[in-house]
Amino acid sequence: MPLLNEYIDLCGPATFGALDEDNGCNACPVAPPLSQIVKVFAAPHGAYVPTDWESQANFFAAIDNADIADAYIKSIVGKGSLEIQDVTTNAGRTYQMVCRRVYTLEHIMPVSQLVYDFSRVMERNWTGFRIWYLTLGGYLYGGQNGIQVHFTAAVLAKEAEADSHEESLLRFVWYADGSPDRAYVPELLNNTVGV
Length: 195
Prior knowledge:
Elements: E1 37-44, H1 56-62, E2 74-91, E3 95-110, H2 113-123, E4 129-135, E5 139-141, E6 147-148, E7 151-155, E8 167-176, E9 182-184
Antiparallel strand pairs: 1-2, 1-4, 2-3, 3-8, 4-5, 4-6, 5-9, 7-8
């Protein structure tokens, strides 16, 4: 398992690249994309993964939630968010720099028997897989190789209210030098496959 997911390729002087002519909130021709995470795709090591991660047909062909041999990607449907924390180091006495980031994706889903069993595996900090995540705006994050998870957890909390439902809070944590590649694949939102 790599110690750090490396997404930013800076092998020389950094350049900014191009930006929109008119940038800022007032200049957006359309609304910014919705950011809620609605699906997490988990690919066990050795599982079939898409040859082109930006192709919805290739991704659909790699998903099989009924597979019990860990040969295919699992589609985990719910709602989630991503928190990013900088890890800094001091270079000299006055200069502080970011050396990596800790990404924590929390994903909530209703509990069925299969979700309960899956959550119990995640409770044991199983990290033998890579993930991609899809936002409500249709953006798929993770790049061609996905994101190597370094820590997992699950919380099967019970609420005190009479009308509360069982939910599983899945937590995926990884270290990286920056955000992963993304692709616009809104067709993946229509996939009804779920755990």
